[in-house]
# Entry
Amino acid sequence: LAACGGDSSSSDDKKSSDEYTADKPLVIKFSHVTAQDSVKGKAADYFAQLVDEKTEGKVKVEVYPASQLYGDADELDALVSGNVHMIAPSVTKMVKLDPRWQYVDMPYLFESEEHVQKFFDSELAQKLFNSDQLAANDIKGMAFWPNGFKHFSNNKHPLVKPEDFKGLKFRTQAGQVLEAQFEALGAGSATIAFGETYAALQQGTVDGAENPFNNFDTMKFYEVQKYLSTTQHGRLDYAIFVNKSFWESMPEDLRAKVEEALAEATKYAQDLAAEENQKSFEKIKSLGTVEVYEMTDEERAALKEALQPVYDKFEDVITKELIDGIKALAE
Ligand code: LMR
# Structure
């Protein structure tokens, strides 16, 4: 409730950065769902370290990895309500607010890491950040971080041809595009929180999943999946979001330093992602517990064709502007 009276030091006034010290820092709670040693975990920790250095401890980023504080189901709500200040969800999970974020799930839309980076740097990506839906929920989009291409895995048999997917059940992150992807392949799906996926695979609630190599590795999915094919059929990437009111309440000088740290951490994440995914791929192959099938271009093309119905169904939802705009960036 707003206070009345003419007190010029009302609580609405911004605090000055002098009020914060290394002993009494301004705390930014940053929650995410992957392991601490994942691409996102490492980039988040590096961001926290940079903020500490740049603000001389006046701002402390408390990173809560591995769904410790909030999982898939509640991290966005926690950001909207200000219980957490910063999150870095896989953008698919923003479908709750704006279905266009499912651009990332459109099969074989992105051709390379460079293509993805061009999109991150594009006006199209900025448009997603400038949406009414984010503003209405007091959320500000800050940066894009890559993870990598997703690959299908399962426990029944190698997945090479479209017909190999028939009758299997897969875990999805969120949204109807991923559901439609499996439908197009004659498979079923269930939305399961990332933190519960290992158990779901272990108990046979679902037969398979789709992950970048690094998530497959750092979540130890290799313990509960027998077959992995390098299908490279979709992306898993992140965006960093802050609670807008919280962000705007920060003293400007400190906010500028946090912004600087985020720009550096973003560059770090961009350099790290492909490298960590490659390392994880080598590790998965060397374990001997997962049969890895390396897909040919022809085999990928057959999957791409089988997944065309996803475009027919979702072009209007994702918007032609976004889909065609992303395709044009490949050239
Ligand atoms: C997933 O649920 O598979 C991903 O969102 C996990 C992540 O954040 O990388």
